[in-house]
Amino acid sequence: MPENKQIKTNYRQEIFRHLDGLVTAPIMHSLSQQGVLQVLSSEKSIKLSELSRQFSANEGYLNVALHALCSQSWAQQEIIHKGEDIIFRLSPEGVAALNLVDWYTPSVEWLLQASDENKDLLSHASFVYWKKAVSHFKSLPEGRTNSIEFQIQKHIEGLLLGPMVVHLGMGGMFHKYFMEASFSPGEFHKDPLNFKDLLDFLVHLKWFTAKKDTYSFTDKGLFFAKRASAYGVTVSYLPTFRQLKELIFGNPLLLKPNSMGSKELHVDREMNVWGSGGAHATYFKKIDEVIINLFN
Fold first, then answer.
1. How many separate helices (H) and strands (E) can be counted in the chain?
2. Which residues contact 75 (CB under 8 A, 6 or more apart)?
3. Quick check: 194 and 183 in contact, CB under 8 A?
4. Strand ranges, E, within 49-187
5. CB distance 49 to 85 below 8 Å
6. What's the chain's Rg over C-alpha atoms?
7. How confident is the model over 130-174, as pLDDT tens digits?
């Protein structure tokens, strides 16, 4: 495979690992805090119904959470008797991930502090938690590619990065002007000090280069910027991810709208539409060709 094509393949894998992290991090944090993962680790296998009874959990939400861990190869699911009995167990990779679950804590704490109502994440008080989480992330020992440590680091990277990328994308940061020219933090954001901290994190991830007080996109940064909408749909469900603990172990109807036509509580619909429209643009373009041809 040509080097340039391989690099793009690696970047796409990175995007998917980031999206995995947005879902996996809050699940691991919630299940570990309640002791569910520790029980799974000590048992060879356990029925979902027994696990739900033991932790007074809502079986449907617990099933979904554990199924998400199966998608990471950290848990294994066995369906018995037409789905009436479901057995779960942690895989060896899952046990290894559980030993590193504390790595998620600072980034999930930021997630829990961030506000759904205040879209400007940079000027919100939660940005203090974001910087603390970034500092912790940078202090982690670098894992070798495809190790559990590497997988978790990419999860955390996605959690810290995804909401910011969507925020910038919806705010016009990835406009042609900024993608083709050097710029200072004050040219784009009203809070240049916080914005500079974000740009410095993106320099750390090799999305930007910094020269004195100006920043420029790298080729890697341009690749991700052009695909910012890929983060939009997953990030739009942060209102749900923030309430995972309550949904699994408390009130399962917490995010149910009060009445017909009331505001959706489980998703940021504006962000969801922005993300799906951009992420599916290629498909829309292709289906347009099919439909126009049919009508012609």
1. 17, 5
2. 40, 66, 69, 88, 89, 90, 91, 94
3. no
4. 75-80, 85-90
5. yes
6. 21
7. 999 999 999 999 888 889 999 999 999 999 999 999 988 888 777
